[in-house]
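Margin note from the TA: students keep mixing up input and output lines. Inputs are the sequences; the output is the structure of the whole complex. Example:
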Amino acid sequence: MTDMPATSEPAVVVEQLVKVYKTTRAVDGISFALEAGSVTGLLGGNGAGKTTTIAMIMGLVMPTSGSVKVLGAEMPRQRYHVLHEMNFESPYVDMPHRLTVRQNLKVFGRLYAVEDLNGRIAALAEELDLVEFLDRPTGKLSAGQKTRVALAKALINSPRVLLLDEPTASLDPDTADWVRSHLERFRRRRGATVLLASHNMGEVERLCERVIIMKRGRIEDDDTPQRLLVRYGRETLEEVFLDVARGRGETREAAQ
Amino acid sequence: MSAFSSGTVALAPHRIGAMVLRYVYLLRSSWIRLLELIYWPAVQLFVWGFLQLYIAENSGFFARASGVFIGAVLMWDVLFRGQLGFSVSFLEEMWSRNLSNLMISPLRPIEFVCALMIMSLVRLAIGMVPVTFLAIAFFGFNVYSLGLALAAFFMNLILTSWAVGIVVSGVLLRNGMGAESLAWTLMFVLMPLTCVYYPVSVLPDWLQVIAWMLPPTYVFEGMRALIMEHVFRADLMVAAFALNALYFAAAVIAFLQLLKSSRRIGSLLQAGE
Protein backbone atom coordinates (compact mmCIF):
# COMPACT_ATOMS: atom_id res chain seq x y z
CA MET A 1 0.00 0.00 0.00
CA THR A 2 1.30 3.45 -0.91
CA ASP A 3 1.26 6.30 1.55
CA MET A 4 -0.53 9.21 -0.10
CA PRO A 5 0.17 12.75 1.03
CA ALA A 6 -2.87 14.97 1.27
CA THR A 7 -3.02 17.49 -1.57
CA SER A 8 -4.54 20.95 -1.52
CA GLU A 9 -7.10 20.11 -4.25
CA PRO A 10 -10.42 18.92 -2.81
CA ALA A 11 -10.99 15.24 -3.55
CA VAL A 12 -14.74 15.69 -3.90
CA VAL A 13 -16.56 18.84 -4.95
CA VAL A 14 -20.36 18.96 -4.85
CA GLU A 15 -22.04 22.09 -6.22
CA GLN A 16 -25.73 22.96 -6.09
CA LEU A 17 -26.62 19.29 -6.31
CA VAL A 18 -30.29 18.47 -6.81
CA LYS A 19 -32.02 15.12 -7.23
CA VAL A 20 -35.73 14.92 -7.84
CA TYR A 21 -37.50 11.54 -7.99
CA LYS A 22 -40.88 12.22 -9.62
CA THR A 23 -42.32 14.69 -7.10
CA THR A 24 -39.85 14.05 -4.25
CA ARG A 25 -36.87 16.40 -3.90
CA ALA A 26 -34.43 13.90 -2.34
CA VAL A 27 -31.45 16.26 -2.51
CA ASP A 28 -32.14 19.96 -2.66
CA GLY A 29 -29.28 22.16 -3.82
CA ILE A 30 -26.42 21.05 -1.58
CA SER A 31 -22.80 22.17 -1.97
CA PHE A 32 -19.67 21.03 -0.16
CA ALA A 33 -16.07 20.08 -0.84
CA LEU A 34 -14.10 17.30 0.83
CA GLU A 35 -10.44 18.03 1.34
CA ALA A 36 -8.10 15.25 0.25
CA GLY A 37 -7.28 13.02 3.20
CA SER A 38 -10.21 14.20 5.31
CA VAL A 39 -12.88 12.14 7.05
CA THR A 40 -16.34 13.66 6.88
CA GLY A 41 -19.51 12.39 8.48
CA LEU A 42 -22.80 12.73 6.68
CA LEU A 43 -25.55 12.77 9.28
CA GLY A 44 -29.27 12.82 8.83
CA GLY A 45 -32.43 10.93 9.62
CA ASN A 46 -34.11 8.49 7.30
CA GLY A 47 -34.95 10.19 4.00
CA ALA A 48 -32.54 13.07 4.63
CA GLY A 49 -30.82 12.40 1.30
CA LYS A 50 -27.54 10.86 2.53
CA THR A 51 -27.66 7.69 0.43
CA THR A 52 -28.78 9.57 -2.70
CA THR A 53 -25.92 12.04 -2.20
CA ILE A 54 -23.38 9.20 -1.89
CA ALA A 55 -24.92 7.46 -4.91
CA MET A 56 -24.50 10.62 -6.99
CA ILE A 57 -20.88 10.96 -5.86
CA MET A 58 -20.30 7.37 -7.05
CA GLY A 59 -22.05 8.03 -10.35
CA LEU A 60 -24.73 5.47 -9.57
CA VAL A 61 -27.48 8.08 -9.73
CA MET A 62 -27.60 10.95 -12.20
CA PRO A 63 -28.20 14.39 -10.66
CA THR A 64 -31.24 16.36 -11.77
CA SER A 65 -29.02 19.45 -11.71
CA GLY A 66 -25.78 20.63 -10.17
CA SER A 67 -22.45 18.87 -10.39
CA VAL A 68 -20.21 16.37 -8.63
CA LYS A 69 -16.49 16.14 -9.23
CA VAL A 70 -14.37 13.33 -7.81
CA LEU A 71 -10.59 13.67 -8.12
CA GLY A 72 -11.27 16.21 -10.86
CA ALA A 73 -13.60 13.95 -12.89
CA GLU A 74 -17.17 14.99 -13.49
CA MET A 75 -19.64 12.35 -12.31
CA PRO A 76 -21.26 10.37 -13.80
CA ARG A 77 -19.99 11.47 -17.25
CA GLN A 78 -16.29 10.85 -16.57
CA ARG A 79 -16.75 8.13 -13.96
CA TYR A 80 -14.51 5.61 -15.68
CA HIS A 81 -11.54 7.94 -15.18
CA VAL A 82 -11.81 7.62 -11.39
CA LEU A 83 -13.86 4.56 -10.44
CA HIS A 84 -10.68 2.52 -10.05
CA GLU A 85 -9.59 5.01 -7.36
CA MET A 86 -12.86 4.84 -5.44
CA ASN A 87 -14.73 2.22 -3.49
CA PHE A 88 -17.85 1.81 -1.41
CA GLU A 89 -19.17 -0.25 1.46
CA SER A 90 -22.69 -0.58 2.72
CA PRO A 91 -24.52 -3.28 4.67
CA TYR A 92 -27.33 -2.88 2.14
CA VAL A 93 -25.17 -4.13 -0.71
CA ASP A 94 -24.12 -7.77 -0.61
CA MET A 95 -21.58 -9.95 -2.29
CA PRO A 96 -22.40 -13.29 -3.94
CA HIS A 97 -23.16 -15.67 -1.09
CA ARG A 98 -22.12 -18.87 -2.80
CA LEU A 99 -18.65 -17.64 -3.62
CA THR A 100 -16.00 -18.01 -0.97
CA VAL A 101 -14.45 -14.92 0.55
CA ARG A 102 -11.27 -15.50 -1.45
CA GLN A 103 -13.22 -15.95 -4.70
CA ASN A 104 -15.17 -12.74 -4.14
CA LEU A 105 -12.02 -10.79 -3.38
CA LYS A 106 -10.32 -12.27 -6.45
CA VAL A 107 -13.17 -11.19 -8.71
CA PHE A 108 -13.23 -7.63 -7.36
CA GLY A 109 -9.43 -7.46 -7.30
CA ARG A 110 -9.38 -8.31 -10.99
CA LEU A 111 -12.10 -5.79 -11.77
CA TYR A 112 -9.95 -3.13 -10.10
CA ALA A 113 -6.76 -4.48 -11.76
CA VAL A 114 -5.05 -4.89 -8.39
CA GLU A 115 -1.40 -5.84 -8.75
CA ASP A 116 -0.11 -8.84 -6.78
CA LEU A 117 -3.70 -9.76 -6.02
CA ASN A 118 -2.92 -12.87 -3.98
CA GLY A 119 -0.57 -10.83 -1.79
CA ARG A 120 -3.17 -8.09 -1.40
CA ILE A 121 -5.87 -10.60 -0.40
CA ALA A 122 -3.50 -12.21 2.11
CA ALA A 123 -2.62 -8.80 3.60
CA LEU A 124 -6.28 -7.75 3.87
CA ALA A 125 -7.23 -11.10 5.37
CA GLU A 126 -4.52 -10.63 7.97
CA GLU A 127 -5.50 -7.02 8.75
CA LEU A 128 -9.23 -7.75 8.91
CA ASP A 129 -8.90 -11.05 10.74
CA LEU A 130 -10.34 -13.05 7.84
CA VAL A 131 -7.62 -15.64 7.34
CA GLU A 132 -9.67 -18.55 8.71
CA PHE A 133 -12.73 -17.56 6.63
CA LEU A 134 -11.04 -17.09 3.27
CA ASP A 135 -12.24 -20.40 1.85
CA ARG A 136 -15.68 -20.32 3.41
CA PRO A 137 -18.78 -19.30 1.37
CA THR A 138 -19.54 -15.64 2.08
CA GLY A 139 -23.19 -16.42 2.77
CA LYS A 140 -22.27 -18.67 5.68
CA LEU A 141 -20.53 -15.93 7.65
CA SER A 142 -21.97 -13.97 10.57
CA ALA A 143 -23.03 -10.32 10.14
CA GLY A 144 -19.77 -9.10 11.66
CA GLN A 145 -17.67 -11.36 9.44
CA LYS A 146 -19.63 -10.27 6.37
CA THR A 147 -19.01 -6.63 7.24
CA ARG A 148 -15.30 -7.33 7.43
CA VAL A 149 -15.44 -9.04 4.03
CA ALA A 150 -17.34 -6.06 2.60
CA LEU A 151 -14.67 -3.82 4.07
CA ALA A 152 -11.96 -5.96 2.50
CA LYS A 153 -13.72 -5.55 -0.85
CA ALA A 154 -13.96 -1.79 -0.30
CA LEU A 155 -10.24 -1.61 0.46
CA ILE A 156 -9.04 -4.09 -2.18
CA ASN A 157 -7.91 -1.30 -4.52
CA SER A 158 -6.56 0.97 -1.72
CA PRO A 159 -9.04 3.65 -2.78
CA ARG A 160 -8.19 7.34 -2.67
CA VAL A 161 -11.88 8.07 -2.09
CA LEU A 162 -13.82 5.74 0.20
CA LEU A 163 -17.58 6.07 0.62
CA LEU A 164 -19.21 4.31 3.53
CA ASP A 165 -22.94 4.03 4.07
CA GLU A 166 -23.62 3.03 7.68
CA PRO A 167 -20.61 0.69 7.79
CA THR A 168 -21.31 -0.58 11.30
CA ALA A 169 -25.10 -0.91 11.10
CA SER A 170 -26.36 -4.12 12.77
CA LEU A 171 -22.97 -4.93 14.28
CA ASP A 172 -22.41 -5.63 17.96
CA PRO A 173 -20.50 -2.85 19.79
CA ASP A 174 -17.25 -4.80 19.93
CA THR A 175 -17.19 -5.59 16.19
CA ALA A 176 -18.29 -2.05 15.35
CA ASP A 177 -15.44 -0.65 17.42
CA TRP A 178 -13.02 -2.99 15.71
CA VAL A 179 -14.21 -1.86 12.27
CA ARG A 180 -13.83 1.81 13.26
CA SER A 181 -10.28 1.20 14.45
CA HIS A 182 -9.43 -0.41 11.16
CA LEU A 183 -10.93 2.45 9.19
CA GLU A 184 -8.89 4.91 11.24
CA ARG A 185 -5.70 2.98 10.53
CA PHE A 186 -6.47 2.73 6.82
CA ARG A 187 -7.21 6.44 6.53
CA ARG A 188 -4.01 7.40 8.33
CA ARG A 189 -1.85 5.09 6.25
CA ARG A 190 -3.42 5.74 2.85
CA GLY A 191 -4.32 9.38 3.30
CA ALA A 192 -7.67 8.53 1.73
CA THR A 193 -10.65 10.84 1.66
CA VAL A 194 -13.53 9.23 3.51
CA LEU A 195 -17.21 10.17 3.45
CA LEU A 196 -19.17 8.32 6.06
CA ALA A 197 -22.97 8.29 6.24
CA SER A 198 -24.10 7.09 9.63
CA HIS A 199 -26.81 7.15 12.26
CA ASN A 200 -24.23 6.33 14.91
CA MET A 201 -23.19 9.61 16.51
CA GLY A 202 -20.43 8.05 18.58
CA GLU A 203 -18.92 6.66 15.41
CA VAL A 204 -19.04 10.03 13.68
CA GLU A 205 -17.60 11.78 16.73
CA ARG A 206 -14.73 9.34 16.85
CA LEU A 207 -13.86 9.11 13.16
CA CYS A 208 -14.80 12.41 11.60
CA GLU A 209 -13.09 15.77 11.71
CA ARG A 210 -16.06 17.37 10.02
CA VAL A 211 -19.80 16.72 10.11
CA ILE A 212 -22.40 17.61 7.51
CA ILE A 213 -25.93 17.36 8.86
CA MET A 214 -28.69 16.87 6.29
CA LYS A 215 -32.40 17.23 6.68
CA ARG A 216 -35.02 16.89 3.93
CA GLY A 217 -32.37 16.99 1.23
CA ARG A 218 -30.67 20.14 2.47
CA ILE A 219 -27.54 20.80 4.50
CA GLU A 220 -28.68 22.01 7.90
CA ASP A 221 -25.21 22.41 9.38
CA ASP A 222 -21.60 21.78 8.45
CA ASP A 223 -18.75 22.07 10.93
CA THR A 224 -16.27 20.23 13.11
CA PRO A 225 -17.85 18.09 15.85
CA GLN A 226 -16.30 20.32 18.53
CA ARG A 227 -17.68 23.54 17.08
CA LEU A 228 -21.11 21.97 16.60
CA LEU A 229 -21.19 20.96 20.27
CA VAL A 230 -20.24 24.48 21.36
CA ARG A 231 -22.69 26.19 19.02
CA TYR A 232 -25.63 24.04 20.07
CA GLY A 233 -24.53 24.05 23.72
CA ARG A 234 -24.64 20.27 23.84
CA GLU A 235 -22.52 17.48 25.29
CA THR A 236 -22.85 14.97 22.47
CA LEU A 237 -23.42 14.93 18.72
CA GLU A 238 -26.54 12.86 19.33
CA GLU A 239 -28.08 15.82 21.16
CA VAL A 240 -27.01 18.13 18.34
CA PHE A 241 -28.55 15.74 15.83
CA LEU A 242 -31.84 15.66 17.77
CA ASP A 243 -31.85 19.46 17.96
CA VAL A 244 -31.47 19.65 14.20
CA ALA A 245 -33.94 16.85 13.51
CA ARG A 246 -36.60 18.46 15.73
CA GLY A 247 -35.91 21.98 14.53
CA ARG A 248 -34.56 23.19 17.88
CA GLY A 249 -31.44 24.50 16.20
CA GLU A 250 -33.53 26.98 14.23
CA THR A 251 -35.36 28.04 17.40
CA ARG A 252 -32.07 28.52 19.23
CA GLU A 253 -30.61 30.58 16.38
CA ALA A 254 -33.77 32.69 16.20
CA ALA A 255 -33.63 33.32 19.97
CA GLN A 256 -30.00 34.42 19.69
CA MET B 1 -3.42 -3.69 -17.96
CA SER B 2 -4.18 -3.99 -21.61
CA ALA B 3 -7.21 -2.37 -23.13
CA PHE B 4 -8.42 -2.18 -26.68
CA SER B 5 -8.76 1.56 -26.45
CA SER B 6 -8.85 4.37 -23.95
CA GLY B 7 -11.83 6.41 -22.84
CA THR B 8 -15.30 5.40 -21.88
CA VAL B 9 -15.70 2.71 -24.55
CA ALA B 10 -12.50 0.84 -23.59
CA LEU B 11 -12.86 -2.93 -23.45
CA ALA B 12 -10.52 -4.57 -20.97
CA PRO B 13 -10.21 -8.37 -21.24
CA HIS B 14 -9.13 -8.62 -17.59
CA ARG B 15 -12.47 -7.19 -16.43
CA ILE B 16 -14.46 -9.47 -18.76
CA GLY B 17 -12.33 -12.35 -17.47
CA ALA B 18 -13.06 -11.35 -13.87
CA MET B 19 -16.80 -11.54 -14.49
CA VAL B 20 -16.54 -14.87 -16.31
CA LEU B 21 -14.50 -16.18 -13.38
CA ARG B 22 -17.23 -15.01 -11.00
CA TYR B 23 -19.86 -17.08 -12.86
CA VAL B 24 -17.58 -20.10 -13.22
CA TYR B 25 -17.02 -20.02 -9.44
CA LEU B 26 -20.78 -19.93 -9.03
CA LEU B 27 -21.39 -22.89 -11.34
CA ARG B 28 -18.65 -24.86 -9.61
CA SER B 29 -20.20 -24.17 -6.22
CA SER B 30 -23.26 -26.33 -6.86
CA TRP B 31 -23.59 -29.62 -8.75
CA ILE B 32 -27.36 -29.10 -8.75
CA ARG B 33 -26.91 -26.00 -10.90
CA LEU B 34 -24.82 -28.01 -13.34
CA LEU B 35 -27.34 -30.86 -13.45
CA GLU B 36 -30.15 -28.37 -14.01
CA LEU B 37 -28.44 -27.17 -17.18
CA ILE B 38 -28.67 -30.66 -18.72
CA TYR B 39 -31.97 -31.75 -17.18
CA TRP B 40 -34.56 -29.85 -19.26
CA PRO B 41 -32.84 -30.20 -22.63
CA ALA B 42 -32.60 -33.95 -22.00
CA VAL B 43 -36.29 -34.20 -21.03
CA GLN B 44 -37.29 -32.25 -24.14
CA LEU B 45 -35.13 -34.46 -26.31
CA PHE B 46 -36.70 -37.67 -25.02
CA VAL B 47 -40.30 -36.42 -25.31
CA TRP B 48 -39.90 -35.21 -28.88
CA GLY B 49 -37.55 -38.01 -29.87
CA PHE B 50 -39.95 -40.76 -28.87
CA LEU B 51 -42.86 -38.86 -30.42
CA GLN B 52 -40.94 -38.69 -33.66
CA LEU B 53 -40.22 -42.42 -33.54
CA TYR B 54 -43.91 -43.14 -33.06
CA ILE B 55 -45.02 -40.86 -35.90
CA ALA B 56 -42.31 -42.17 -38.23
CA GLU B 57 -43.59 -45.71 -37.77
CA ASN B 58 -47.07 -44.61 -38.82
CA SER B 59 -46.36 -42.09 -41.54
CA GLY B 60 -44.32 -42.40 -44.69
CA PHE B 61 -43.75 -38.63 -44.82
CA PHE B 62 -42.29 -38.44 -41.33
CA ALA B 63 -40.24 -41.56 -41.93
CA ARG B 64 -38.53 -39.61 -44.71
CA ALA B 65 -38.22 -36.57 -42.44
CA SER B 66 -36.35 -38.47 -39.77
CA GLY B 67 -34.67 -36.13 -37.31
CA VAL B 68 -36.76 -33.01 -38.05
CA PHE B 69 -38.34 -32.90 -34.61
CA ILE B 70 -35.15 -33.77 -32.78
CA GLY B 71 -33.24 -31.19 -34.77
CA ALA B 72 -35.94 -28.64 -34.00
CA VAL B 73 -35.79 -29.45 -30.28
CA LEU B 74 -32.02 -29.03 -30.21
CA MET B 75 -32.14 -25.77 -32.18
CA TRP B 76 -34.95 -24.38 -30.03
CA ASP B 77 -32.89 -25.16 -26.95
CA VAL B 78 -29.95 -23.23 -28.38
CA LEU B 79 -32.26 -20.24 -28.79
CA PHE B 80 -34.08 -20.53 -25.46
CA ARG B 81 -31.20 -21.67 -23.25
CA GLY B 82 -28.81 -19.22 -24.87
CA GLN B 83 -31.06 -16.39 -23.72
CA LEU B 84 -31.68 -18.04 -20.35
CA GLY B 85 -27.94 -18.52 -19.79
CA PHE B 86 -27.42 -14.82 -20.44
CA SER B 87 -30.36 -13.66 -18.32
CA VAL B 88 -29.78 -16.02 -15.39
CA SER B 89 -26.17 -14.86 -15.05
CA PHE B 90 -27.46 -11.29 -14.95
CA LEU B 91 -30.19 -12.23 -12.48
CA GLU B 92 -27.57 -13.78 -10.19
CA GLU B 93 -26.27 -10.24 -9.58
CA MET B 94 -29.72 -9.01 -8.65
CA TRP B 95 -30.52 -12.01 -6.46
CA SER B 96 -27.26 -11.55 -4.58
CA ARG B 97 -27.67 -7.73 -4.32
CA ASN B 98 -24.27 -7.37 -5.93
CA LEU B 99 -25.24 -5.07 -8.79
CA SER B 100 -24.30 -1.83 -7.00
CA ASN B 101 -20.84 -3.24 -6.29
CA LEU B 102 -20.39 -3.92 -9.99
CA MET B 103 -21.83 -0.62 -11.13
CA ILE B 104 -19.42 1.39 -8.98
CA SER B 105 -16.47 -0.72 -10.10
CA PRO B 106 -14.50 0.09 -13.28
CA LEU B 107 -16.50 -2.61 -15.12
CA ARG B 108 -18.02 -1.07 -18.27
CA PRO B 109 -21.56 -2.08 -19.30
CA ILE B 110 -20.25 -3.49 -22.59
CA GLU B 111 -17.72 -5.62 -20.70
CA PHE B 112 -20.52 -6.88 -18.49
CA VAL B 113 -22.54 -7.80 -21.60
CA CYS B 114 -19.49 -9.56 -23.11
CA ALA B 115 -19.06 -11.62 -19.93
CA LEU B 116 -22.75 -12.55 -19.98
CA MET B 117 -22.46 -13.65 -23.63
CA ILE B 118 -19.47 -15.83 -22.80
CA MET B 119 -21.35 -17.37 -19.88
CA SER B 120 -24.34 -18.00 -22.11
CA LEU B 121 -22.01 -20.09 -24.34
CA VAL B 122 -20.48 -21.88 -21.35
CA ARG B 123 -23.87 -22.77 -19.87
CA LEU B 124 -25.15 -23.83 -23.29
CA ALA B 125 -22.13 -26.07 -23.83
CA ILE B 126 -22.59 -27.73 -20.44
CA GLY B 127 -26.29 -28.32 -21.09
CA MET B 128 -26.40 -29.10 -24.79
CA VAL B 129 -23.27 -31.06 -25.68
CA PRO B 130 -24.23 -34.11 -23.56
CA VAL B 131 -27.77 -33.94 -24.95
CA THR B 132 -26.51 -34.04 -28.55
CA PHE B 133 -24.70 -37.27 -27.68
CA LEU B 134 -27.90 -38.64 -26.13
CA ALA B 135 -29.63 -37.84 -29.45
CA ILE B 136 -27.06 -39.96 -31.27
CA ALA B 137 -27.25 -42.80 -28.76
CA PHE B 138 -31.05 -43.03 -28.47
CA PHE B 139 -32.38 -41.77 -31.81
CA GLY B 140 -29.46 -42.05 -34.22
CA PHE B 141 -29.66 -38.31 -34.92
CA ASN B 142 -26.23 -36.74 -35.28
CA VAL B 143 -26.62 -32.97 -35.25
CA TYR B 144 -22.90 -32.62 -36.03
CA SER B 145 -23.49 -34.29 -39.40
CA LEU B 146 -25.11 -31.01 -40.46
CA GLY B 147 -21.56 -29.72 -40.77
CA LEU B 148 -21.00 -26.05 -41.58
CA ALA B 149 -24.74 -25.49 -41.76
CA LEU B 150 -24.89 -26.24 -38.04
CA ALA B 151 -22.41 -23.42 -37.41
CA ALA B 152 -24.61 -21.00 -39.39
CA PHE B 153 -27.75 -22.15 -37.56
CA PHE B 154 -26.00 -21.87 -34.19
CA MET B 155 -24.57 -18.41 -34.86
CA ASN B 156 -27.93 -17.03 -35.90
CA LEU B 157 -29.81 -18.54 -32.99
CA ILE B 158 -27.27 -17.45 -30.38
CA LEU B 159 -27.25 -13.89 -31.76
CA THR B 160 -31.03 -13.71 -31.40
CA SER B 161 -30.85 -15.17 -27.90
CA TRP B 162 -28.25 -12.56 -26.86
CA ALA B 163 -30.30 -9.72 -28.34
CA VAL B 164 -33.32 -10.82 -26.29
CA GLY B 165 -31.12 -11.38 -23.21
CA ILE B 166 -29.61 -7.90 -23.51
CA VAL B 167 -33.01 -6.21 -23.74
CA VAL B 168 -34.38 -8.25 -20.81
CA SER B 169 -31.34 -7.28 -18.69
CA GLY B 170 -31.88 -3.62 -19.52
CA VAL B 171 -35.53 -3.87 -18.50
CA LEU B 172 -34.49 -5.59 -15.24
CA LEU B 173 -32.02 -2.78 -14.52
CA ARG B 174 -34.66 -0.17 -15.18
CA ASN B 175 -37.64 -1.84 -13.49
CA GLY B 176 -36.07 -4.17 -10.93
CA MET B 177 -37.08 -7.69 -10.00
CA GLY B 178 -40.72 -6.99 -10.88
CA ALA B 179 -39.69 -7.70 -14.45
CA GLU B 180 -37.98 -11.03 -13.62
CA SER B 181 -40.70 -13.14 -15.26
CA LEU B 182 -39.72 -11.62 -18.61
CA ALA B 183 -36.41 -13.46 -18.41
CA TRP B 184 -38.21 -16.80 -18.17
CA THR B 185 -41.10 -16.25 -20.53
CA LEU B 186 -40.26 -13.72 -23.27
CA MET B 187 -38.69 -16.28 -25.57
CA PHE B 188 -41.87 -18.36 -25.58
CA VAL B 189 -43.60 -15.57 -27.51
CA LEU B 190 -41.23 -16.43 -30.34
CA MET B 191 -41.95 -20.16 -30.22
CA PRO B 192 -45.17 -20.20 -32.29
CA LEU B 193 -44.04 -17.31 -34.49
CA THR B 194 -40.64 -18.71 -35.45
CA CYS B 195 -42.22 -22.00 -36.60
CA VAL B 196 -39.97 -24.32 -34.64
CA TYR B 197 -41.89 -27.51 -35.39
CA TYR B 198 -43.87 -26.64 -38.57
CA PRO B 199 -43.26 -24.79 -41.83
CA VAL B 200 -44.04 -21.07 -42.13
CA SER B 201 -46.60 -21.85 -44.83
CA VAL B 202 -48.87 -23.27 -42.11
CA LEU B 203 -49.37 -19.78 -40.65
CA PRO B 204 -52.02 -17.37 -41.96
CA ASP B 205 -50.63 -14.88 -44.47
CA TRP B 206 -50.58 -11.91 -42.10
CA LEU B 207 -48.73 -13.90 -39.45
CA GLN B 208 -46.18 -15.09 -42.00
CA VAL B 209 -45.13 -11.46 -42.47
CA ILE B 210 -44.31 -11.26 -38.75
CA ALA B 211 -42.63 -14.67 -38.77
CA TRP B 212 -40.26 -13.59 -41.53
CA MET B 213 -39.20 -10.61 -39.44
CA LEU B 214 -37.70 -13.02 -36.88
CA PRO B 215 -34.23 -14.50 -37.58
CA PRO B 216 -34.94 -17.92 -35.98
CA THR B 217 -37.72 -18.51 -38.54
CA TYR B 218 -35.04 -18.60 -41.25
CA VAL B 219 -32.98 -21.06 -39.21
CA PHE B 220 -35.85 -23.49 -38.63
CA GLU B 221 -36.90 -23.29 -42.28
CA GLY B 222 -33.29 -23.80 -43.31
CA MET B 223 -32.92 -26.77 -41.00
CA ARG B 224 -36.03 -28.46 -42.41
CA ALA B 225 -34.79 -27.84 -45.95
CA LEU B 226 -31.47 -29.42 -45.08
CA ILE B 227 -32.85 -32.48 -43.29
CA MET B 228 -35.81 -33.18 -45.56
CA GLU B 229 -34.60 -31.95 -48.96
CA HIS B 230 -30.85 -32.07 -48.37
CA VAL B 231 -30.54 -28.47 -49.53
CA PHE B 232 -28.57 -25.82 -47.68
CA ARG B 233 -30.43 -22.52 -48.07
CA ALA B 234 -27.61 -19.95 -47.86
CA ASP B 235 -30.08 -17.21 -48.79
CA LEU B 236 -32.04 -17.88 -45.60
CA MET B 237 -28.88 -17.72 -43.47
CA VAL B 238 -27.76 -14.43 -45.03
CA ALA B 239 -31.18 -12.90 -44.40
CA ALA B 240 -31.10 -14.14 -40.80
CA PHE B 241 -27.62 -12.66 -40.25
CA ALA B 242 -28.75 -9.29 -41.61
CA LEU B 243 -31.78 -9.24 -39.30
CA ASN B 244 -29.66 -10.39 -36.35
CA ALA B 245 -27.12 -7.63 -36.91
CA LEU B 246 -29.94 -5.10 -36.88
CA TYR B 247 -31.63 -6.53 -33.76
CA PHE B 248 -28.36 -7.00 -31.88
CA ALA B 249 -27.31 -3.38 -32.45
CA ALA B 250 -30.81 -2.21 -31.44
CA ALA B 251 -30.63 -4.36 -28.29
CA VAL B 252 -27.27 -2.87 -27.24
CA ILE B 253 -28.58 0.66 -27.80
CA ALA B 254 -31.74 -0.17 -25.83
CA PHE B 255 -29.64 -1.62 -22.97
CA LEU B 256 -27.47 1.49 -22.74
CA GLN B 257 -30.54 3.73 -22.80
CA LEU B 258 -32.26 1.66 -20.11
CA LEU B 259 -29.09 1.80 -17.99
CA LYS B 260 -28.99 5.57 -18.40
CA SER B 261 -32.63 5.75 -17.44
CA SER B 262 -32.02 3.61 -14.34
CA ARG B 263 -29.28 6.05 -13.27
CA ARG B 264 -31.81 8.84 -13.72
CA ILE B 265 -34.62 7.24 -11.69
CA GLY B 266 -32.26 5.73 -9.10
CA SER B 267 -33.28 2.12 -9.66
CA LEU B 268 -29.66 0.89 -9.45
CA LEU B 269 -29.80 1.76 -5.75
CA GLN B 270 -32.74 -0.55 -5.16
CA ALA B 271 -31.61 -3.31 -7.54
CA GLY B 272 -32.32 -6.67 -6.02
CA GLU B 273 -34.90 -5.49 -3.55
